[in-house]
Design a protein that fits this description.
Length: 130
């Protein structure tokens, strides 16, 4: 099955760098415009500290049932960071329009005394990624 996807690629702009990167911005998926959500919070306290995180979800189609992937790194606390990765729950409608998603999980296990942190929250309202 083929799904039509449209978007654009943005070059990092550094032509002298042999390890330059590109970012792919998807603007539609199967004919539907896509959107993203903000994602932020503070992890649980473990080993005497917590971590902050802030990022954006991966794009998903607008106007159809969907979830979003997310992947970010926490703040540096106690000499280490943790990775946060997962998939949101389904869309929950907001009374004034738009929607949000719930998310939860556990960070990777890191630190000089290996440990993880729990995290949970709700995304911000949808933002058109065009």
């Amino acid at each position: 099955m083929k799904i039509p996807v449209s978007g654009f690629v943005l070059n990092s702009g550094d032509d002298d760098d042999t390890h330059h990167s590109h970012k792919l911005y998807i603007t539609s998926w199967n004919g539907n415009p896509v959107h993203v959500h903000s994602l932020s919070g503070i992890t649980s306290i473990n080993n005497g500290h917590s971590h902050q995180y802030a990022s954006w979800t991966a794009p998903a189609p607008t106007g159809v049932p969907h979830v979003h992937g997310y992947n970010t790194v926490t703040s540096l606390n106690q000499g280490h960071t943790h990775h946060i990765q997962g998939t949101t729950g389904p869309a929950i409608a907001l009374p004034g329009g738009g929607h949000y998603h719930l998310f939860e999980g556990f960070t990777t296990i890191d630190g000089s005394r290996p440990h993880s942190h729990a995290y949970s929250g709700r995304t911000g309202n949808e933002i058109n990624s065009r």
